[in-house]
Amino acid sequence: MAEAVKEKPSSFAEVVENCCAQLRRRQIQGSLPCAKRTAEIMRALLTMQRHPDAASLIDDVRAVGYKLQAAKPVELAVGNIVRRVLHLIREEAQTEKSDSEADSNDAVPQGKADGKQDVMKSQGVEHLHANEVILTLGMSDTTYAFLREAARKREFQVVVAEGAPRYDGHLQARKLADAGIQVTAIPDSAVFAMMARANKVLVGAHAVLANGGAIAPAGIHMVALAAHKHSTPLVVLVGLHKLSPQFPHDPDLLYNDFRGPAEVADSDMQARGLPQHS
Amino acid sequence: MDSKKPDLHRTSSRRSTHESQVEGAVPVPKTIVGFHVDGASPSPATEGLLSKEAGRSSFTEGGGSPTPVIIPPTFQRERFETREPTPQEGSAGASTGVAPAFGSVPAGSTSQQSGEGSIASGIPASARPKSLDLPAPDVPGPNTTQQQGNSGVVPPFVTSPAVVQSAVPGFEVGKPPQSQPAQPSAPPVHRSPSPAAAAPAAGVAPSSLHGFSVNSAQQQTQPQAQQAQPSLPQQQPQRLQQPPVQQPQKQQPQQPQQQGSSAPKLKEMSKAERRALQEAQRAAKAGGQKDQDGGSRKEGGGGGGGGASAGRAHSVASSESHSSHRGGAAGGKESKSAATGQKAEDKGAPAASLGDAAAKAPKRRPARKVVSLNSTELFAHLPPYQKVSVSSLLSHKDAVHMHPAVLQLGLRYADGTIKGATARCLAMLHTFCQVIQEYVTPPGKSLSRDLTHELNTIIDLLVQCRPLAVSMANTIRRLKMRIHSIDVNAPEAEAKRALIEDIRRYIEVQIIAADRLLVDCAVQKVTDGDVILTFAYSHIVANVLTKAAALGRTFKVMVVDCRPELEGQRMLEKLQASGIACSYIHLNALSFVVRDVTKVFLGAAAIMSNGTVMGRAGNAAVAMTAHAHSKPVLVCCESFKFHERVQLDSITHNELGDPDALVSLPGYPGVSPLAGWQDIPRLGLLNLKYDAMPAEYVTMIVTEYGMIPPTSVPVILREQQQDASASGGGGGM
């Protein structure tokens, strides 16, 4: 399936279908890869099909966008990219009234990546002072890049909660320590205890919603509650592709992703719960 | 002077008989009592440690401790800084920090102080291989050796250069005439308190040395050698009480170079290498002395030491720096070295080079203190986690005389077999009953005093295994009051019987009956259709829920669990055995399920007088989340766990668990990235056992007195205290 996408696909529909299948099977993990993939699809749409005017282009983009988003409803970055593309199309149509706006589309994915880097470089130092204690949960590339940039000019320490059952906090702790930052790894249960000594909480998020809420890996709600209790500022670091105009009417159902219970309860425990027949 | 050195040694503070023995024709295999690293290269049988502890005061009897000394060179450099003898027993089986262990290194040669075996100059000298300009060895040397018997042979790292510098600067034993040229390494040398410089001065026999014990004379010369250096080394003299070293000046230049060549870090050296290094240093020192004194004593010692290896070491030493060693060390040290040299039979050759490296190591001064950015240091006031093993427990100084039930109990605490405040308290009381049952008052002592003393030693041992829980502390306090009130004239059997009776009654009233009342009270709060949330394992909550199920209520339970202890699985098993429908989630998923929960039942390890609830780590997060969703939180806790102190956060009073427990991920495919965290300098792991839940999250506390709000805890405490004082010493606990 992947090869079909790499080569010039026979039809654009196949390309879209491949991408949807990969999204459904979780073969594309993470917001940024999904966003990039969506941008590629959009570009392919522009190059592979001729559109007489902006209106038809918008219709096509919207149709493809629905398909992609339906493949993985929890991945809001897909919809965000599609909306951005639509916005760009409308802008171009307004200004130029020309046929193809392929160039505008190319700028989308690159611009995002660059923009993020600049944000890291400029703001990391602004928001952290010396000898600060930063609390974070789990693994986030954005947070990692942010802290690493800030560590060039500031001396601070990071407390990383492990983020079970993913345990990606271990990876975050290791990477930060290897980057020369003083790190302490704690289990999630100690977050409340350590919050008393944390100056800031820096976390990444899966998506940020229109009401300011964030969707993030499990455990973030308790970190946020603890930060609120201790009046510790909580900063969510996200790339622009994660900003979503959606409102969380029922976030726990709509924007949640469930994984297998084996990560939490091994099969012995599950077997004990089965009806016992003597 | 050199020839006199041995005499000086002898005349000065009483040499340990060890020395005298050594001086004898037949060298006794000298083992330097040092800190014993569990699992290190095989050392004589463990009981040697106990016998060593017992016979510490009498350093010799030839039986001496067979345990060889292992003093990594890096620590030697810090020895000079502490003057006071470090506790010896720390060495015994101390697998924990080096600090305690080092203390135990006795100064061999000198023993002004009561016979602590002292590796004495042997060590410090050995620390610096042939070259005296090794500051580090000197530094410790002065302390160790001079302090005759100063166990500070290896003072804990606490030493700081500042300490030395504050010493009397003007005190110079005698300026070595040619210290300067010989000190290419002077700058680094003098950094280390030990006056390695003194070494080069060598020959100078400080006239003022007489003030010091002979042992230090040797070291003193070194400081002199470094007169040119900042006063720092000069202060050494007063600490150094070794006989003046008469090293040829040329030695020093050699040494620094050699030292500079390579200084393998302590970590990089294997244990064998380290030991070889030690032995080589000792041998070198012995060899040096031998050269200086040219006494047959050394020969005898060398021969006794086991000849070939010792000789090899000696030859190596002498080749390196002939007569470089402070002659002072006297025969005793040297023979000691020789004796120990035999241990390094196979390591004589490499030891020499290692010695150089090691000698250089001490020169590295500990960096000046910088602001620590390590979160784990927030908990520096708490005892660090110590892995307790059977051998480490048995090497405790009191373990020999301890009732085996106490040792068993301690081990069960340490490995988690007995967990939970109530269970630990119960087990402790049962053990106390056993101990009291078999206790016999020694003649001439009063039961209450001696029993209290006995209990104190038991408690010390238990604390070594695992810090006391609040429930245990409360109980011990009451028990001591009760023992204190024992009538002096009462017959022992009767007093013991009454005491055990009171303990049994305490258990019955405060734990068993209290639990029953508590369960009856809390069960009223479980109604049909409830979804009850509980966290980790609490025996009282489990009892409440099983009782409610037995009464026929229909409810569901959500068990929240957290790493690394995963006690919720035990709760899950217990509830499932009672046929209760359960769900099991990890702590991070709590915010998802809490909206469906109707009540939260939690246990507690202790409740403070401001209503703060100490529980398993994660308790506070559960209560906070429930509170945020307006769910009632009921804490079930017997009153004997109430404590009158006020706790503001989870850091002031807590317990540190095993950091390695975070690294092991059972069932996780792959190895955690944290594996090998000890080797990563900037990575620390923190495993907290307890958590302080603020009173605002607690809706109600269920005790055997009924249901009370968190603000009523001090009321209960006050009433308990009044009861206790009213009953005075007469009644039960």
From TrEMBL, chain A:
Keywords: Cytoplasm, Initiation factor, Protein biosynthesis
Molecular function via GO: translation initiation factor activity
Record flagged with keyword Transport: no
Subcellular localization(s) per the UniProt record: Cytoplasm, Cytosol
Subunit text: Component of the translation initiation factor 2B (eIF2B) complex which is a heterodecamer of two sets of five different subunits: alpha, beta, gamma, delta and epsilon. Subunits alpha, beta and delta comprise a regulatory subcomplex and subunits epsilon and gamma comprise a catalytic subcomplex. Within the complex, the hexameric regulatory complex resides at the center, with the two heterodimeric catalytic subcomplexes bound on opposite sides.
Pfam families: IF-2B
Family from the record: Belongs to the eIF-2B alpha/beta/delta subunits family.
Top-rank lineage group of the source organism: Eukaryota
Protein name: Translation initiation factor eIF2B subunit beta
Automatic annotation (TrEMBL), chain B:
InterPro entries (alphabetical): IF-2B-related, IF_2B-like_C, NagB/RpiA_transferase-like
Biased segments, Basic and acidic residues type: 1-21, 76-86, 265-277, 288-300
Start and end residues of each stretch annotated as Disordered: 1-368
The keyword Cytoplasm belongs to this UniProt entry's keyword annotation: yes
Compositional bias ranges of the Polar residues kind: 107-116, 142-151
Compartment annotation: Cytoplasm, Cytosol
Cell wall biogenesis/degradation in keyword set: no
Keywords for this protein: Cytoplasm, Initiation factor, Protein biosynthesis
Pfam families from the UniProt entry: IF-2B (PF01008)
Highest rank taxon of the organism: Eukaryota
Description of how the protein assembles with itself and partners: Component of the translation initiation factor 2B (eIF2B) complex which is a heterodecamer of two sets of five different subunits: alpha, beta, gamma, delta and epsilon. Subunits alpha, beta and delta comprise a regulatory subcomplex and subunits epsilon and gamma comprise a catalytic subcomplex. Within the complex, the hexameric regulatory complex resides at the center, with the two heterodimeric catalytic subcomplexes bound on opposite sides.
Protein name: Translation initiation factor eIF2B subunit delta
Protein species of origin: Dunaliella salina
